[in-house]
Amino acid sequence: MNGLRLDPIAFSLGPISVHWYGIILGTAALVGLLLAVREGKRFGLSPDFFMDLLLLGVPSAIIGARLYFVAFKWDEYKNNLLDVFKIWNGGIAIYGALIGAFICGIIYFRYKGYSFWRIADICAPSLIAGQMIGRWGNFVNQEAHGGPVEESFLRNSLHLPDWIVTNMNIDGVFYHPTFLYESIWNLLGLIVLFVIRRRHFIRAGEVLMTYFIWYSVGRFFIEGLRTDSLAFHGAAWAASIMDALWSPMKLIFEQGYLNPAEGNIRISQLIAVLLVIAAVAMIIGRRTTGAASARYSDPIINYKTGLPAGEMPESKDKPAARRADLKEEAGGDQGESTIKE
């Protein structure tokens, strides 16, 4: 693969072309499922619970991601509605995916009788692992990259392998591999989530909040390098705040180009800042009010049955059946014995 440009199409089955983008997203979903299943077993949750969640959540996430992207790029799609469905060409937004997935999760968890916070905590590492892997789909499609850089920066400063450097050459220009920056940041975040969820002081919902904080901080700074950011025209003071927050990066990198015609505030940066603020406020607020009394390590209770996850209510006939068994065991050669109710 060294020195070769990757073909976005992995293979073809007759008229059907299978894209690397889809394979990578599928792999990301599978890895996320395996992580959730493994952790869920500690709390008595069955693999089927997470399999059903995946079957519902992935389509919801894809629809949300695509709708989010198309909404901010409507001028490009309004005259080509069929292009809305061509997700293999890229053009999905992670925040839209999160919105779709979380709406699905809230409904599904409620239907199953579980607290949203408890199950979302288990799924948080799956989310960041999926994003870590999914970013490589952007690499194959040569999209979601940063601004121009020198080839020597990729080879000598970052020490990237030749196959990555070659594929960051788009039409003769080398670009920041922002997909790689975010993938590595998410890998570190995955390790952080693995560590903190074993700490006794972590309360319900705080693994999820940590995920939002970690991902959003990285996304804010990496987004500033990109040249394809969704943007809008906001107040000058708000744009100045975004620029000031990103300014430490200017000591190392040049900010990616943002077309003034599209806006002066990158939407993903603004959402990242708001998510960090909201997550910190949520942690403090839930602890202050006592809403986060349950710890991550506590048993997960199904509020429909009142039992820990994995335990089923006893059948109404079970006590009677058990009494009959006891009578038979107590009888034997001694004749009939009396069993006290």
TrEMBL record:
What EC number(s) would the UniProt record show?
2.5.1.145
Q: Which InterPro entries match?
A: Lgt
Which positions are annotated as binding a 1,2-diacyl-sn-glycero-3-phospho-(1'-sn-glycerol)?
R135
Spans through the membrane: 20-37, 49-72, 92-109, 178-196, 202-222, 229-247, 267-285
Q: Which UniProt keywords apply?
A: Cell membrane, Lipoprotein, Membrane, Transferase, Transmembrane, Transmembrane helix
> Which regions are flagged for Basic and acidic residues bias?
313-330
Its localization reads:
Cell membrane
What's its membrane topology?
A: Multi-pass membrane protein
- Segments of this protein annotated with the region Disordered: 306-341
Gene Ontology cellular-component terms listed = plasma membrane
* Gene Ontology molecular function, alphabetical: phosphatidylglycerol-prolipoprotein diacylglyceryl transferase activity
Pathway it works in: Protein modification; lipoprotein biosynthesis (diacylglyceryl transfer)
Broad EC category = transferase
Q: Which domain of life is it from?
A: Bacteria
* The protein's role, per its UniProt record: Catalyzes the transfer of the diacylglyceryl group from phosphatidylglycerol to the sulfhydryl group of the N-terminal cysteine of a prolipoprotein, the first step in the formation of mature lipoproteins.
Family per similarity comment:
Belongs to the Lgt family.
Q: Which PANTHER family match?
A: PHOSPHATIDYLGLYCEROL--PROLIPOPROTEIN DIACYLGLYCERYL TRANSFERASE, PROLIPOPROTEIN DIACYLGLYCERYL TRANSFERASE
This protein is called Phosphatidylglycerol--prolipoprotein diacylglyceryl transferase
Q: Which organism is it from?
A: Paenibacillus montanisoli
Tell me the name of the encoding gene: lgt
